[in-house]
Description:
alpha+beta; 2 domains; four-stranded antiparallel beta sheet; elongated
Amino acid sequence: MYYQGVRDGVETERVAVDxxxxxxxxGCPGYAKYVSLYSPEYHGEQPVAxxxxxxxxxxxxxxxxxxxKIAVPILCFWVAVSISFVTYGRMTQ
Length: 93
């Protein structure tokens, strides 16, 4: 991940950052955030640089949290149904 922009109207500069959520470094106004993505299945030998618009790229933590928001209620429903069947089975023996 890095910010890229033009310094002094002449030279293109890249400034590396540590995370996707990192803010633009001081002294780099107007720089755009880029991410290098690589998959051996799709990208041959070199990674692809993609402009990181905040609404398109999300972190792995955000993906996991979003998945849990869907999975936990479904799991709770099926656990409740299973407990109901077990309880009903015990009551009717």
